[in-house]
């Protein structure tokens, strides 16, 4: 999309006429956990986004400095800073999109599930506040384990009487970003043309790239398909190990979350054909109340959850293998929230 710096291959825009359609309305975006490894570059990318009018940065530490720093960039987005429980309301009031990267990241040897004990409580608290202060906002959760934190958020919103499944999404865009990069490298394709849907969840074997549905169509031998799938599933661990204790993916995650936020804002602005994969309330797979699926984004948030399409035998087996783990992680989140 000409002039759009976060050009996103999976985001399709129906026509050049449609591209000119979004009118910038007042769009307040809140980032909760804005001073962290993801929060800072994500906030910078949002400060550069023409669809954002106000950027409310919230963190329990160091956020005033981040906001002062960002506010000197000569882009029109107004930056405001909030810290501590007493200021959370100010960050959330009037927000149409709340992006949550708050919480601890993995260290080598840890699974995303190992983060549950700390991050579950953080997400529960922040989503409770969003339910109170911006009940109609779209909430996008980055904090891991996404397979559990999204179900926690849904229970919190249900208990507050404001749950709208169209407005709660787990951010799995990084899996798509990685799949696009790796497939394009492996096949010498132009990155801007490559789109690989990634479904399931956001941890280990629950990450299922649908290589058979890649655009453009690519063919793999059995061994290549297995290796590519594993690389996409383990890409987060690749970064965790390379950072050797200093955290997990932050820059690529910020890029992915900024792309997701931009797609969401385009949908809100009435752009007709915006698609992303995200971990959402879904009927795609019986028995799994949430599933990362390709979704269409519109004025109401998720306007449509697309089905899985035709899977090949490898993908069918991978889907069967992931389901017990995915369902258990979802249930763990639900149980925690209901406790
Ligand atoms: P970080 O430790 O650098 O930053 C986290 C920030 O959250 C810190 O600034 C901290 O002060 C803040 N925070 C903690 N409790 C808070 C609260 N109650 N309210 C507001 N802010 C709070 O961590 P990083 O690297 O930014 O990662 C954040 C999360 O994102 C982790 O859970 C990580 O696992 C997850 N992640 C998710 C990915 C995805 O694809 N969905 C990819 C990479 C990381």
From TrEMBL:
Keyword set, alphabetical order:
NAD, Oxidoreductase, Tricarboxylic acid cycle
**Cross-referenced Pfam families, in alphabetical order?**
Ldh_1_C (PF02866), Ldh_1_N (PF00056)
Where, in this chain's numbering, is substrate bound?
Answer: 106, 112, 144, 178
Record-annotated active site: 202 (proton acceptor)
Q: Where does NAD(+) bind?
A: 33-39, 59, 119, 142-144, 253
Domain named Lactate/malate dehydrogenase C-terminal: which ranges? 172-336
A GO molecular function term, named singly, is: L-malate dehydrogenase (NAD+) activity
Task: Pinpoint the Lactate/malate dehydrogenase N-terminal domain residues.
Answer: 28-170
Q: Which InterPro entries match?
A: L-lactate/malate_DH, Lactate/malate_DH_C, Lactate/malate_DH_N, Lactate_DH/Glyco_Ohase_4_C, Malate_DH_AS, Malate_DH_type1, NAD(P)-bd_dom_sf
| Enzyme category, top tier | oxidoreductase
Catalytic activity annotated for this protein?
A: (S)-malate + NAD(+) = oxaloacetate + NADH + H(+)
Oligomeric state and interaction partners are given as:
Homodimer.
State the family named in the UniProt similarity comment for this chain: Belongs to the LDH/MDH superfamily. MDH type 1 family.
User: What is the official name of this protein in its record?
Assistant: Malate dehydrogenase
What is the originating organism of this protein?
Raphidocelis subcapitata
